Amino acid sequence: MQSPKPRRKAGPTTNGLDSAEKLDELLISSAICNGEDLGPFVRKTFGTGKPETLLHHLKLFSRSKESEIEEVCKAHYQDFIHAVDDLKSLLSDVESLKSALSDSNSKLQSVAAPLLSSLDSLVEAGTVSKNVDLAIGAVKHCVRVAEIASRANRHLQGGRFYMALKCVELIESELLEKTPSSTLKRMIEKRIPEIRGYVKRRVSKELGDWLVEIRVVCRNLGQLAIGEASSSRQREEEVRIKQKEAECVYALIEEDIDGDEYESSDDDDAFDLTPLYRAYHIHQTLSLQDGFKQYYFDNRELQLKSDSEVSSMTPFLESHQTFFAQIAGFFIVEDRVLRTGGGLISKVEVEFLWDLAVTNMCAVLEDQFSRMQTANHLLLIKDYVSLLGVSLRRYGYTVDPLLEVLSKHRDKYHELLLSDCRKQMAEALSADKFEQMLMKKEYEYSMNVLSFQLQTSDIVPAFPYIAPFSTTVPDCCRIVRSFIEDSVSFMSHGGQLDFYDVVKKYLDRLLGEVLDEALLKLISSSVHVVSQAMQVAANMAVFERACDFFFRHAAQLSGVPLRMAERGRRHFPLTKSQNAAEETLSGLLKKKIDGFMILVENVNWASDDVPQGGNEYMNEVIIYLVTLVSTAQQILPAKVLRRVLHDVLAHISERIVGTLCGDLVKRLSMAAIKGLDVDVQLLDSFTEQLTSLLTEKEANEMKTAFVEIRQMINLLLSSHPEKFLNPVIRERSYHALDNRKVATVSEKLKDPSDSIFGTFGARGSRQNPKNKSLDTLIKRLKDVS
Hints:
It is found in: Cytoplasm, Cytosol. By secondary structure, the chain is mainly alpha-helical. It is built from 27 helices and 2 strands. It is 73% helix and 1% strand. Helix 3 (51-157) runs antiparallel to helix 4.
């Protein structure tokens, strides 16, 4: 069927209208047909006041369109009629086609019936095959689940918990949801939590056993580590001693020993962390690692607090090694866990535990040190703590707070050490017999002389050897050396590198306070005879050499070059006791001399005969002095003997002058003065004979000891005694004389004929010039007085 052709739109035709109205009608029709806006036409119409024209045109347009619509409808109706006619012409053809199709369908059904039955059988067989395949797959799945479950059981029985958990995890994540057997599925779902719980209980029990065992392991491990540190320290000391020997020979500066160079056995092989890591691995597998970490940290913290407690039942001196070894082993284990534990414990947690341990150890040390009253006990604990610090510093732990506690108790330790040395020295001095020490063997010489550098010669003497000192000297030297070594031991390995000044300070106190006071007490209470005083004075001379050794030894042990130590040397610290020993010896010798000087009473001071060979008292004194020198020079140093002899000779001079000025002598004769001159010559001869002891200069200085009596005799024997009044002559020849003594002795030397009563018998006789000069001297001296 063909659709009608579109008709052309045309506007309405009007008759009888004028040309203007017709034009308006055409414009309106064109605007409506083109769909344009009619607003301008409406405004124009109302603007002109003639709306009726617009309405008229619109009505005309409407009537023109109605006729057009009518024509279109007529055209379509004709087309429909033609289509119906065409359908009716096809109806017979459709009937013939329908019969042909029916015949074809019958033939097809007759042929396809056997095929349909075969197809149904095929579909049924396919369904059965599919069901069998599903059943076989289900059985295989169940068998696999059963095999994995059986494997998990074998792992559990063999203690391979991680493998068992991995089997359980495989069943749960991949097989359980696909398991077709509901019974098997329920059974497995029930068993999985039980298996995990069983594994967790087993590894927790193993961990608990490990936590118990690791405490014993930590103690042994700490003792091993501290023992290695001690061995390393001994090796360092041996190297340091060799360096010191080289320094003595070549004056080299000792180099520091690197404390990290020592070799040690691998501490990691000394303990087993397998139970811990196994438990941690299992808990990671169970996704319980966070709880396990906290559990481990809490238990280790409790163990540390328990290890940091000090038992009141056992003295700390006996338990301190176990106490510190336990803590050292604890942190060696924690360092290993930190490095190899895969995050089981963090560095922050280890530092927290270390801070806790340091705080507890510092508190324990403060408390125990405050109670200790024995220096040796304090030193033992300090040494062990320093070894603990060396051991743990290798693992990166900071031990400065512990070293600060040790440094804080430095003064107390040295006070206790000084107190101990005071007792030891008192015992050593009280046991002294004031006899020269006899050494029969070379090892005795080495032990008592060479070890303290007391020898005056490098030649080893013949044995048996009698030393110039008594047993007190080596005994006290051993005490001082032990003090130095203990002081250095306490100060070393304590974080302070330069501690020689501290050691030197306390060494000065030991020598200047303890030993010096002990010697002063010995001298004042136990020295009563010359031999004892001489031995003590000889000991003091040896002590002077020993003190040089003490300061060198302290410098060497402190790592200070000897030349630097020599620059800081002070005066001899035993000066008081040395002076007291010499004064005591001089005093006892003066008392002995006084015993011989009593013989002065036997001298006839008014005799006209000059005694030949000197007076008796002086001969006795000279004999004693010769004997004294021969004995004293065996043990006393020359300088000490010179000082003592000088004091003794000065005392002899004072006694003679005192006798001349005293009441014992009423009158002096010139012969007696000449006898005194012979006595003084004997003293001169004695000093000149000391060639092995004195040089010429020293002999002249020795003679100054009796310069007073010599000048007094020279004045009395001179022909013009009044020259004593001349300041120049007096300063040159009589500077040691006192005016009053000269006046007193001169009065006793006056000739009796010059007295008041003697002038009557000798009136008119000429006076002796010497007597006149002597009278002038006496008168002038009296005027001066």
